[in-house]
Specification:
Elements: H1 2-33, H2 36-41, E1 44-49, E2 52-57, H3 71-92, E3 97-108, E4 116-122, H4 128-138, E5 140-151, E6 154-167
Antiparallel strand pairs: 1-2, 2-4, 3-6, 4-5, 5-6
């Protein structure tokens, strides 16, 4: 009947949504790999779920002179996790934009002696709905994010930042 038809349509749309997100994640991976410094750091997508993006990188490619994670690598993976999250959220809303980090603050809390893994999420006082609505209306908007790298279950470094999206110029 009608209900079975709606259920089938809903499952087809869910599958297409998953395929589309897999395609968006593949595009993000390709964009990351196309940037020489990012490729050298070995940064790759680990997970994207519940509007949180996690990127990872091997410690071996990001060592400092003390044998732990290089601060510049931590700042980079934090920033890229935020940049990637904003890019994915815009894509999920069907919007095309260039995304930039406008400002950020990184706090280094403990040395990291393992692989780097940064998870970015929306800041507590921010809203995806407001960000996407402003972008759709004005062609640009900013959003506050936070990101964190864990070391043995505790934060090793944190980032709070503001990311800006600008409508892509026609080619």
């Amino acid at each position: 009947g009608i209900m079975r038809g709606w259920a089938t349509l809903a499952s087809v749309l869910w599958v297409f949504g998953k395929i589309d997100m897999q395609e968006q994640l593949a595009r993000l991976e390709a964009t990351l790999a196309a940037m020489p410094p990012v490729r050298a750091m070995g940064i790759a997508v680990v997970a994207y779920e519940d509007q949180q993006l996690t990127l990872g990188a091997p410690l071996a490619a990001n060592l400092n002179d003390k044998g732990n994670a290089f601060g510049g690598s931590l700042a980079s993976i934090h920033t890229l996790s935020g940049w990637g999250l904003v890019s994915l959220e815009l894509a999920a809303a069907g919007l095309q934009a260039d995304v930039y980090v406008a400002d950020s603050q990184v706090r280094y809390l403990a040395p990291l002696y393992g692989d780097l893994q940064a998870t970015a999420r929306l800041a507590d006082d921010a809203s995806w709905e407001v960000f996407l609505q402003r972008f759709a209306q004005r062609g640009h908007a900013s959003v506050a994010l936070v990101a964190q790298v864990q070391a043995e279950g505790r934060p090793a470094a944190t980032l709070s930042g503001r990311f800006v999206a600008k409508a892509k110029e026609p080619a």
